[in-house]
Amino acid sequence: MDIKKLRNYAELIAKTGLNIMPGQEVVIRTEPEQTEFIELLIEECYKAGASNVSIEWRFMPATKLDITYQSEEKLSEVLKWQEEKLKYKAETLPASVYLDSDDPDGLTGIDNAKWARAQQKRYEIIKPYNDKMENRYQWCVAAVPGKKWAKKVFPELPVEEGMEKLWELILKCSRADGEAPMEAWKEHNDNLRRRCDWLNSLNLRRLIYKSESTGTDFNVGLIPDMLFCGGDEELPGHDDVRFNANIPTEEVFTTPMRGDAEGIVYSTMPLSYNGMLIENFSVRFEKGRAVEVKAEKNEEALKTMISMDEGAAMLGECALVPWESPIRESGVLFYSTLFDENASCHLALGRGYSSCLKEFWKYSPEEAREKGVNDSMNHEDFMIGAPDLSIIGVCEDGKQVQIFKDGRWAEM
Amino acid sequence: MDIKKLRNYAELIAKTGLNIMPGQEVVIRTEPEQTEFIELLIEECYKAGASNVSIEWRFMPATKLDITYQSEEKLSEVLKWQEEKLKYKAETLPASVYLDSDDPDGLTGIDNAKWARAQQKRYEIIKPYNDKMENRYQWCVAAVPGKKWAKKVFPELPVEEGMEKLWELILKCSRADGEAPMEAWKEHNDNLRRRCDWLNSLNLRRLIYKSESTGTDFNVGLIPDMLFCGGDEELPGHDDVRFNANIPTEEVFTTPMRGDAEGIVYSTMPLSYNGMLIENFSVRFEKGRAVEVKAEKNEEALKTMISMDEGAAMLGECALVPWESPIRESGVLFYSTLFDENASCHLALGRGYSSCLKEFWKYSPEEAREKGVNDSMNHEDFMIGAPDLSIIGVCEDGKQVQIFKDGRWAEM
């Protein structure tokens, strides 16, 4: 891939994605692939003002071997130095990049139950630090090609060719392939903000989803104090610092009312969960809780997913993406949530975004939960968009407004 | 490279290199290259009994950017969580692999003085943990090809071809290219032990080095209680655990008397120090201390090297390697100490090996220092072997024995 384009992309992540503040620390979480790009990204973070850029390497083949060979006790450990590190991050609030290049099948074959129990135990230690950091630092999820991921997306191509093609697609979908990606994102963020403004002017209390082609027939309550969000968001306490938590992003989303969802939704794309692909599945909700799940592939993983903790079976996000999103139009199934979620309306099971509450910075995590924001160690998006999807919004005064029609925005 | 050969090599490192004890933790320090081999090595470590295998990634381009962009204060920091990690390791004594694939020129152009001062400050925190761990855990330095390293060794070859050729050479020099590498190492360790037994039977007190072709004219005192070591060594407190700290190794070595060296030595190979190549250099000693250094290339780095701390200008190792070592016979200059030191007689400036003292486990680090073992944050080997090198040993009773003649063992 052309080095100038890669440098533009790195700068986009550092400035539009994170908007690094002078002297702020930066953490980059990444697989050990694309080291040339990582080098560019580190430099762009420093140039943007970082005082320190550290890398936290993830390596899925090692994780799979750990799960296979370690005792459950060892696998569940959070060592004292690891907890000290969490504490340091909760205190210093580094801007954080997550570079996704994961093999969508990377953990296939593991002992799901063992891994789930270990994650649950570890989360008991980790959660207080997560809660402490919530909404207080800039983060950005972006992607770089990985060999196994490229092979999954383009099985017919030689690996190197597939990698190159995936780079092209990532940059295109991320609006980073033009001359001035940061300018393009300014315009894109403005467009998403206009959508949000319209939705927020309606004062919605409920969304009703219907699609005959898939069978989806579902409705979900919204929190009175919620806002629809999309594009860049502000960092509380720093008026001038807005950041983009996802590159790419095409969605407008909110956090729904915990415990208020009824009906059934059908997936229209595979879900990559914990290194496994869950395919052709449905989720039926009663009183806000997923009470029945079915999947043609990896149903067991789906069942594990919704039983990780109390909130894992409840909703944390409703996101609206029109059928003609540029990512959908690429015609590619990415097997990566970052991309696939931006090609389709989706819901998320698990943790909600308290940042969707009006004046969210006033609320503690506990207060946000009380207002109806779901809590969980998970946040798993799954795609339910369809060309005939209708979404009707019910306003505070009972009036109904067509939000989506035939899978697309009904207005604007 | 053939996967079976790579797996054999991984097994060799896990079993012959580290000799992992059941339930022991393992740490692998590596650059983010050769991830396929790293995966094999992790698995072989687990199969050999490891309870946990963790990876500490090094990434030299990031280090270079850190040195360039961070303030000296930030660069000098050892954070509390990092110190907790050192403490954990000093308590649990994990078996440690260091996979070398460094770019020999990777830090060229940095601000040497800034980097040296930062390392000195960091070492103040790190040293007590290093001292606590000394001689109490198994470690093994081995190599895997890196792209920039391969390009340096084979500048005329396309990178992929150079990488493949470097793999072949690494496996050959490491006696890991045959059907049964672990058997080959058993025999190799026995041979090295026979050399040590002969040298130790002589009760040597001084070595006198001379080479007309290079100009080397130098002598160094030995510690009365010292032993020559080579090949595998024992882990104190675990009679049945012997490990090989270097793969490959061809040397028989000891730790000389601190403060007792006179004369001049001339390098016969470049020295890769801190990501820079120091070339065609000489070191003149007075009363055991390097008082004058000259180098055709990177003299400044050499001067920095010997001034890192008090012990950095004094000797920590005398190693004997015959001119016809298999690594020398490969005809390749590796620009990597692990290989080049095993192609040539060498000395090391800096920290000595207290494990060369008879019954070394009886001595604290301080007691070992008192007996004459040098202390430093550095340990930098440099090569002085030559085809006409003569080494004469002076025994306790004053008798002189020819140890090396014409660059080779004089006996056996």
Biggest sheet features of chain A = 9 strands, antiparallel
Q: Oligomer, anyone?
A: homodimer
Alpha carbon gyration radius of chain A: 20 Å
Instruction: Give the class of chain A from helix and strand content and strand pairing.
Output: alpha+beta
Helical segment count of chain A? 13
Shape descriptor of chain A reads globular
Q: How many angstroms separate the termini of chain A?
A: 37 Å
Largest contact between chains:
A-B, 33 and 33 residues
Our estimate of the beta-strand percent of chain A is 25-35%
Mean pLDDT of chain A: 96
What secondary-structure arrangement, pairings included, does this model have?
The structure is a homodimer of 412-residue chains.
Chain A: H1 3-18, E1 25-30, H2 35-47, E2 52-57, H3 60-69, H4 72-76, H5 80-92, E3 95-100, H6 112-133, E4 139-143, H7 147-153, H8 159-173, H9 181-202, E5 204-210, E6 217-222, E7 233-235, E8 238-243, E9 252-254, E10 256-266, E11 271-273, E12 276-286, E13 289-297, H10 299-306, E14 315-320, H11 326-329, H12 337-340, E15 346-350, H13 365-371, E16 379-383, E17 390-395, E18 400-405, E19 408-409
Parallel strand pairs in A: 1-2, 1-3, 3-4
Antiparallel strand pairs in A: 5-6, 5-17, 6-10, 7-8, 9-14, 10-12, 11-12, 12-13, 14-15, 15-16, 17-18, 18-19
Helix pairs in contact in A: 1-2, 5-6, 7-8
Description:
The structure is a homodimer of 412-residue chains. The first copy, chain A, is an alpha+beta fold. The first copy, chain A, is 35% helix and 27% strand. In chain A, strands 5, 6, 10, 11, 12, 13, 17, 18 and 19 form a nine-stranded antiparallel sheet that branches. In chain A, strands 2-1-3-4 form a four-stranded parallel sheet, with helices on one face. In chain A, a hairpin with a 2-residue loop joins strand 18 and strand 19.
